[in-house]
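EI: anyone free to look at a 454-residue chain?
SC: sure, send it
EI:
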Amino acid sequence: METITTPLPNKEGKEGETSYSPYFNPEAETMPREQLEQLQLERLQKTVNHCMNSPFYQKRFQELGITPADIKTLDDVRKLPFTTKEDLRDNYPFGICCVPMKDCVRLHSSSGTTGNPTVVLHSQKDLEEWATAVARCLWMVGSRPEDVFQNSAGYGMFTAGLGFQYGAEKVGMLTVPAAAGNTTRQIKFIKDFGTTVLHAIPSYASRVFEVMQQEGVDPRKDTKLRVLCIGAEPHSEEQRKRIEDNLGVKAYNSYGISEMMGPGVAFECQEQNGLHIWEDYFIVEIIDPVTLEPVPDGELGELVLTTINREAMPLLRYRTRDLTRILPGDCPCGRHHKRLARLQGRSDDMIILKGVNIFPIQIEKILLKFKELSTDYLITLETKESGDTMTIDVELSQLFTDDYKRLQALEKNITRLLKDEILITPKVRLVSKGTLTVSDEKKAVRVKDLRKLF
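SC: here you go
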């Protein structure tokens, strides 16, 4: 059973305007659950058999005493071994590949700054399926062939550049591969080319607005922007709303991970009530990151994904380390694929301070309640004589004055709300705009843990 890979035929509107199906892949996106789960099982069984071409998975199966024949139901996915980022590094560069190298046409890899990079291989079919998945996502948020798509992500080993590029082309949009950085040029392209759909990480979307303000550009009057795709950084609903208000767009959350393919794994629809994850490409599990046991739908846990539509390098039960939960119920958009809640951070990014578990996104949620603050902040953890401490430096917005009494009152108010949220009292320092400059090309650094130096 295969899915449709092109949109339904266009239909002419009453006044000569082209109208389209609301779905890029109508059959796949609206497939009833029973039929979707049957497709998943067929593809899972095929994938498990295919994984036996990898010495890595052959060894794992032998260690667990299982064979592909043991996978008879979808629940049997729990019998399969977990795969981790460390496994990819230990088998660097091509040890998990399941096809001859002559059948691979592209690889992407991480930076490898902490050891061997993680390498993911793709066949030509893998790339075509990836483009289709991204096209589904872009179509789902209202992108159409008449739109102009601008991509501010880096091209090269980073998957967001080429992933969004080929997906946007598959939709049929005019694409502007602006790449990362040079914000002034980005804004010129947005204005001159009539960009309507923009892809940017959240911190950079905020940076674009700041430079627009400096150059006297009103995004509502001087641009045609209407859709923004944001991802790659955990961000709060407050940050999303601020970006929407600033740029005059609807901002849709994107989730991608290079080990799966990159962008295109899950995406919000126009309802903005969770990210639809393409279950004809992946089997989704949410587990307790400590016990590794499944948690009930609706409960927070670590996202685990199994690829079921990949040739070159399928991955079984890959531990993403990303924390989320499955949202119950159906989406009004008519798609039957499960929805993931906004990511709450990563299990390995959790801050443990004085016995309290804290995620940076909790702090961001409080900071962005204050219009006097910008979106840039830095959490610093240090060990002092009194024990471990947390200092939060947060930039003031350009609109806020330097009145000492107002600053002092603002610091106290922020500290009080943060204590209520994270149960400890941090030191809050309000700093002037531009102090915590965020690179145009990299994700924002939110936490600096200096405790390991002591």
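EI: The longest strand covers residues 373-384.
SC: 👍
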